[in-house]
Every structure is written in C-alpha cells, then in structure tokens.
Amino acid sequence: MNNSFRHKMDLSIRFMVSRKELDIAAYLKEQLSVLDDILLGKPYLAVTFYVPGELLALFDVTALYMERIAGFGAANRICTSLETYRGMTGFPYYGCSYQLLFDYMINSGILPKPYGFVAASFACDDAWSYCRYASGKYGIPFYFMDVLNGCDVNSSEYLAAQLKELYTELQSVFPQVLSVEEVVDASNKAISSKSRIDELRFKYPGIMNSTQAFKMFTIYNDLGRKEAVSVLNQTLEDLQQKAVTYAYNNEPRVLWLGILPLYKNSIIQEIEKKYKCRIVYEELYSFPHEQLSVKSFFNDLAKRIEKNLFYTPEKRMEAIISLIDKLEIDGIIHFSQNNCRFLPPQVPLLQRKLSELGIPFVEVRGDAVEPECFNENQFFNYLDTFFEIICRGVK
Ligand code: SF4
Asked: Can you give the pLDDT at residue 121?
C-alpha cells in the first residue's frame, strides 16, 4: 500500500515533467523525498497548516503537514470509502474529511505513526482538536500553539510568546540543525519571489493557471527551507516568460474562494472552457509578504499570522474587495467544504457585502476530499445560473 501511494506520487512527478510544469514537478519531488524519509523510519511530526514552517525547519525532524498529505491522498483517490471508515472509527460525523483521511492513512499503514502532533488553534478548530484526540488515541505527544485571533498588541505578544514556547519545547527534544539566520534568509528569499509572482499576477490577470496555484498553495508550509526558494523561483521564471506574450481576450474574470474538489484535477479547465471565462485568482495561494528578521524572529512570525487574510472575517472581506478592485473581477465562486465550520459560516456576510457592490456570487458545496459527497450535476447547475448573470452584466 505504501508503495502504491509512493508510486502514484512518482507518476505525478513524471507527468508534470512531461508537461514541462517544472515548478509543480520540483515541488512534488520535494514532497516525495519527505515521504521517503518517513517511510524509511525517520521520526516525523504531523503539523497543522498555520504552524510556521520556519520553526520546524530549524530542527532535525521531518514536518508532515496534514492537510497537504491528505490533499495528495485525495487527489490520488487512495481511499474510496472514507464514510465507511468514519463509521468504523467513531470519528464525529460533523468532522472535516481532511483529518479523517489523514487518520485513515495512519490506520491503514500508508503512513507510519508520527512522533507527535503540532497544532495551532488558527485557522480552524477541527484540525487542532483532531490532533489532541489522536495524540491520546496513538499515545504520542501533542504540542499546541494558541492563537487568540485578536487585533491588539496583547494578542500579538501572546502569539509571539506561544511561538517561542513551542520553539523551546521542540528544542528540548530535537537537535537544532539550522541557525535562525539560515532559516530567516531562506524564508525572506522565498517571500521576495512570491511577492514578485503576485506582482505579475496583478499586472497580467490570469497569467498563472489557477490549477497550478491550487496545486502549490501549500508551499507556504515550506517557508524557511531552501527548497521553497527554488520552487518559487521556477514559478517566477515561467511567469516572466509568459508575460512576454501575454494577451487577455476580455473573458469574464472570476475569483475563486475556498478550496476545490481535489480528486477532479481538471475542474478549473472544465469551467473555463464551458463558460468561456478565466479564473484569475484564488485566495488560498495568497499569503502576506512579511519579511522576517533574526532579532525579532518570533514577533515577525506572529505578525505574519495576524496579517493573514483568514485571520478575521473582516480581514478576509477587505482582501476580497481589494482583489475585486485590482483584478477587475466580474464574479466570485465560493466552494464550501462539507462540515467546515471555518469559511462557510462567513458566506452570508460575503453575500451581503458583494450584493451591495453588485458582484455576482455563487456558493457551491461539496467535499474536497470525498468524491462521493460531491454532486457534480448540481454543481454545474449552480454555475449555469451564475454565468448567465455574469454574461448579462459583462461589458
Ligand atoms: S476545510 Fe475547514 S475544517 Fe477542514 S481543515 Fe480546512 S479550515 Fe479546517
């Protein structure tokens, strides 16, 4: 089973190389080497999305970000009966399928048991509460980083102190293999490249395929590692080349919010072809261009988390309005993940604001991880109506 998952990742890399999608190939290659280390018995920590990669890059332990590996698992359809597994394990019926699939991967031997879990209370409650539950179930350590989600100095200082405490805890268990200077340098280089990528994306809307952005948004978890710098530099180089012949043909411009069905690799291209539109941006591949300094390492990491567009619903709303403006967006699709108690509850607020601004908006629901919980006909029915509205309004 291990080999079959590994084999599928290896095939994806070859496929990307054959399509000359070299940044995705490099990115997957790096993930495959992480998987190889783990399969060879190197201890690893299972980590939630917003625990900064820089903190983990300092130590001699592999960090496996759970949403990312579950995403690869879903894209490769490694489990076809996740709902049966949910019933068998007593996993809450309202729990998110990302954590469920990760748990399945451990239980079925696709992944060995981690050394421990590292979780942040931002962004969602499902991820960290699963880690706490699973640390008890598997009898392994649980490291927790609390995020207050406030916007005052106290919450910022509290977060920086939490980060420092996590660093001290990890330092007491794992040898430090990189200096803070090295990690800060790699992180800043990656962020500079990402900032130049975003400049190009704003100057030439649609220059980057959204499918590519969705495949690579978890590069955020690699900040602090030099591999992230080369992947982002490759993306930047590709976009610079595309910019030379860039032309936009006045198709409606769509902004994609939330995630997307991971097992349907071609969904974005299908939508673009069927409705003659371009999905020009997606919020997930967007993260703050915050540079770090060695002197204020923990405070800067805390600031970066606070500047994240998902930090509060208000921040997200501001970011969306700014994207509408910069990219001249004609309409917005929001994919709401089943059972997610983080982004879908913000939909009424978004709907209200976007209706005031006269921006067509559609919410489509489904499960990004479980194909059996996605009704494709219904999905396209909603989009039919949405694009009829857009086409009536587009110049
Ligand atoms: S989809 Fe929602 S509940 Fe699931 S991991 Fe992401 S934020 Fe958390």
From this structure: 95
